[in-house]
Amino acid sequence: MREITLHILDIAANSISAGARNIFISIIGNHKDDTLEITISDDGKGMTPEMVAIVTDPFTTTRTERNVGLGIPLLKAAAEACNGWFNISSELGKGTKVQVGFQLSHIDRMPLGDVPSTLLGLLIGTPEVHWTFRVKNDEKEFYFDDTELKRELGGDCLSEPEVIRYVRELFTEEIDALALN
Ligand SMILES: Nc1ncnc2c1ncn2[C@@H]1O[C@H](COP(=O)(O)OP(=O)(O)OP(=O)(O)O)[C@@H](O)[C@H]1O
Ligand SMILES: [Mg+2]
Q: In this structure, are residues 14 and 71 in contact, taking their beta carbons and an 8 Å threshold?
């Protein structure tokens, strides 16, 4: 994949498929440490330790009774190719947390991509999920929790063009101002 946001979409799609009611996404750039850290955590159905081992490394497993995809291994490989790291923790019935780090300045690091559109797409596409987003670049931070919006405008407000326009402008303005690429 050519952009980190495409990986974020893939990992978030896993959370949605796992039946998560709450999904948190954070994207944190830190120039002092030269890191870009992404976290996606959910309260979906979770996985057993055996399952976690298989999804992280599908090529080294001898197990064949189920098909595993490539979303997680591809993200892990992308991070490790950039002097980064990958961690997944999961508990059956509780949820899953995927954390990945890239060396921010690494020559092979993919660009982030369009963060405002990616987050907006998730928010609009799965309104039944409670979304929380944090995007941070050094000391500057944008935090968004959809609770208030849905409480004040109604749970289905994200199907209304004016609301979508408002959130798009908010995300674009706030996230562009962070100048995180
Ligand atoms: N957040 C999650 N909660 C529960 N199970 C998960 C989660 N993320 C991944 N899984 C399990 O791990 C499997 C592998 O995930 P992965 O993203 O690598 O591939 P995939 O989603 O099956 O296929 P794709 O290549 O389309 O992403 C999933 O099919 C699912 O069973
Ligand atoms: Mg997937």
A: yes
C-alpha to C-alpha distance for 176 and 154, rounded to whole angstroms: 28
**Which residue's CA lies nearest to atom 1 of ligand 1?**
15
pTM, two decimal places: 0.95
Protein residue whose Cα sits closest to atom 7 of ligand 1: 14
List the domains of the chain with CATH numbers: 4-178 (3.30.565)
CA 164 to chain centre: 20
Q: CA-to-CA distance for 93 and 110, rounded, in angstroms? A: 33
| CA-nearest residue, atom 30 of ligand 1 | 14
pLDDT in tens, the chain (181 residues): 789 999 999 999 999 999 999 999 999 999 999 999 999 999 999 999 999 988 888 776 555 555 667 889 999 999 999 999 999 999 999 999 999 999 999 999 999 999 999 999 999 999 999 999 999 999 999 999 999 999 999 989 999 999 999 999 999 999 999 999 8
Residues with CB under 6 A from ligand 1: 10, 14-15, 18, 42, 44-47, 55, 68-72, 96
Cα 152 to averaged position of ligand 2 atoms, centre (Å): 33
